[in-house]
């Protein structure tokens, strides 16, 4: 769906309707069945009301047999309408849920294709609001409005037509009142639409803020930030209140206005019709049927008007959803894939890069930066002329002050972002020529901010390799020195984790993240502050396991603790996005430059 909509921006009603109708078109047979059943039900209601004319005339004329036949026929018509009403409500539920299923599925699938830049610039609560508040407004409209709008339109058009059949002179008066109703509905609807859009945006902003405050509740309490948080919440809540009030103020006047106009209409028509009956210009049955139609005319108009609230909110929510689905996906022009070789040569990896012409390049883990420049925003470079290499099996460390560009370098290796100038070679291949999924499959990464998913400990470790056996999971946990604490838990590897592993210590969570990387068994490892949340004692316990994990692999390490990078083959010292020093631990100390000062500063603190 996202590909079908690409190239346009849903900034108007026509586009949003087109996108929504495209989803509805996938289930057109169910919706056609709903339309047919709704039409029969609405026509049955019209026919039943029209039957008042012959029934009343039969009663007035004393024709008993004709009266009985008329009553039976009227009952049969209403009975058919009831059956059709039951049928379309059940069918509409199925159709609506299938449409919503498609929208949620496509929305989530499209989010998986978006670059990290999209998520870096949006609150998670606002993204969640797309799936909850915005999709819910579409759900309300489909379940409550689709059938009602069709039924109301048929009843309004049919009622007006039958009114002209019964008495065209009185119908001219009714038409004027109908016109007054629609003019007011149009006036109110236009003003409500802008407020409904603002309401959905304010709701997403409020959801995002609540999520941030709930997740950071400890920080809020530590710094006594409750009052300031409440003040900011009140401001956002007030914005939502104003938008909601504006939307509902206009929408809420629609039904009272329509009802008032219909009452005046009925009173005038009843007086004029009575005078015409006294003058012999119409029969009693026609007048009775006519007045019932006039009285009922307000009902479909009210229903149609009432659905305006659902429709306007749904269009605002749908516009937000389709705006996200129209975001350009992550660009991946790579054609080189990662394949497993059945019989690799001795000493070579079983993995290889397969070129479009079928040529294979053994995966060795040779990574090189050649004069790389990069900035997250155009005109604001973060990295300047970065050149370095990591031969297979080497350990390369990055050190420097916060914001120096260490994490940015590792983000470029796995193509979370693409370089703006220069190139990165992986086994002699420009990483932009490698499919992103295959590139990332060859890289293991342990992030500074761990994230554990709801599920068992075994399932969280298996996230690194979905087909990993229990034995492989336990072996990876032993490498990370996580096996001992896992076995002490009540359920061991089957212990259920929730709320991002809140029932574990930060160090234990980090150990599981390391085990997750170990089970993937990648040829290249990226450790971004991998031991930042682990105490010194725990760090000492995992050093041997980490050495075993890094053995034979190319490793990039980012660490503030310089003790963890002393055995690196090469250490890159970064400052303001430039490599200002490079060498091993001893040579850098001998230079007595930035690394020397960082190292001795750490030593003094310890």
Short description:
The protein has 22 helices and 15 strands. It has 606 residues and is an alpha/beta fold.
Low-confidence stretches: 1-10
Strand content: 5-15%
Number of domains: 2
Oligomer: single chain
Instruction: Count all strands and give the number.
Output: 15
Largest sheet: 6 strands, mixed
What global shape is seen?
elongated
Radius of gyration, CA atoms, in whole angstroms: 35 Å
Top-tier CATH class of the largest domain: Mainly Alpha
The strands making up the biggest β-sheet line up spatially as 9-12-13-6-14-15
Q: Which range best describes the helical content: under 10%, 10-25%, 25-40%, 40-55%, 55-70% or over 70%?
A: 55-70%
Structural class: alpha/beta
What is the CATH superfamily of the largest domain?
A: ABC transporter type 1, transmembrane domain
CATH fold call of the largest domain: ABC transporter transmembrane region fold
Distance between the termini: 57 Å
* Helical run tally: 22
Q: What is the typical, i.e. mean, pLDDT? A: 83
CATH architectural group of the largest domain: Up-down Bundle
């Amino acid at each position: 769906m996202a590909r079908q909509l690409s190239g346009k921006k849903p900034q108007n009603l026509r586009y949003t309707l087109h996108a929504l109708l495209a989803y509805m078109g996938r289930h057109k047979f169910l919706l056609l069945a709903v339309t047919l059943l709704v039409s029969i039900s609405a026509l049955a209601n019209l026919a039943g009301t029209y039957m008042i004319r012959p029934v009343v005339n039969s009663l007035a004329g004393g024709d008993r047999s004709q009266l009985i036949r008329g009553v039976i026929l009227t009952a049969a018509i209403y009975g058919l309408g009831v059956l059709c009403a039951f049928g379309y409500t059940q069918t509409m539920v199925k159709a609506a849920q299938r449409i919503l299923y498609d929208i949620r599925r496509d929305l989530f699938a499209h989010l998986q294709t978006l670059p990290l830049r999209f998520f870096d610039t949006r609150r998670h609560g606002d993204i969640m609001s797309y799936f909850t508040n915005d999709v819910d407004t579409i759900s309300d409209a489909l379940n409550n409005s689709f059938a009602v709008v069709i039924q109301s339109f048929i009843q309004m058009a049919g009622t007006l037509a039958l009114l002209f059949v019964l008495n065209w002179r009185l119908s001219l008066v009714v038409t004027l009142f109908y016109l007054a109703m629609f003019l007011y509905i149009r006036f109110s609807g236009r003003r409500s639409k802008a407020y409904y859009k603002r309401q959905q945006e304010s709701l997403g902003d409020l959801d995002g803020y609540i999520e941030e405050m709930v997740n950071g509740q400890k920080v809020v309490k530590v710094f006594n930030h409750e009052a300031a948080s409440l003040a900011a919440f009140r401001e956002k809540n007030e914005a939502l209140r104003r938008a909601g009030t504006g939307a509902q103020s206009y929408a809420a006047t629609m039904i009272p206005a329509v009802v008032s106009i219909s009452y005046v209409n009925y009173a005038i028509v009843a007086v004029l019709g009575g005078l015409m009956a006294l003058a012999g210009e119409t029969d009693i049955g026609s007048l009775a049927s006519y007045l019932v139609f006039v009285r009922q005319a307000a009902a479909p108009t009210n229903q149609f008007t009432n659905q305006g609230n659902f429709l306007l909110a749904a269009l605002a929510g749908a516009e937000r959803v389709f705006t996200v689905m129209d975001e350009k996906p992550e660009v991946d022009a790579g054609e080189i894939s990662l394949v497993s070789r059945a019989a690799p040569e001795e000493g070579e990896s079983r993995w290889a890069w397969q070129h479009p012409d079928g040529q294979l390049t053994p995966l060795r883990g040779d990574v090189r930066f050649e004069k790389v420049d990069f900035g997250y925003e155009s005109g604001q470079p973060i990295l300047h002329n970065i050149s370095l290499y990591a031969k297979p099996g080497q350990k390369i460390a990055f050190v420097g002050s916060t914001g120096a560009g260490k994490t940015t370098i590792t983000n470029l290796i796995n193509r979370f972002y693409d370089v703006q100038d220069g190139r990165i070679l992986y086994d002699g291949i420009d990483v932009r020529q490698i499919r992103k999924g295959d590139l990332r499959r060859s890289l293991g990464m342990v992030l500074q901010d761990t994230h554990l998913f709801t599920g068992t400990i075994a399932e969280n470790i298996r996230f690194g390799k979905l087909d990993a056996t229990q034995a492989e999971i336990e072996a990876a946990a032993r490498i990370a020195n996580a096996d001992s604490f896992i076995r002490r838990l009540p359920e061991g590897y089957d212990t259920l984790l929730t709320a991002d592993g809140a029932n574990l210590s930060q160090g234990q969570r980090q150990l599981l993240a390391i085990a997750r990387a170990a089970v993937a068994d990648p040829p290249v490892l990226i450790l971004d502050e991998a031991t930042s949340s682990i105490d010194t004692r725990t760090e000492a316990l995992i050093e041997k396991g980490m050495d075993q994990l890094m053995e034979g692999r190319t490793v990039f390490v980012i660490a503030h603790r310089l003790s963890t990078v002393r055995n690196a083959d090469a250490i890159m010292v970064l400052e303001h996005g430039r490599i200002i020093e490079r060498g091993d631990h001893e040579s850098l100390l001998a230079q007595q430059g930035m690394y020397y000062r960082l190292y001795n500063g750490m030593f003094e603190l310890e």
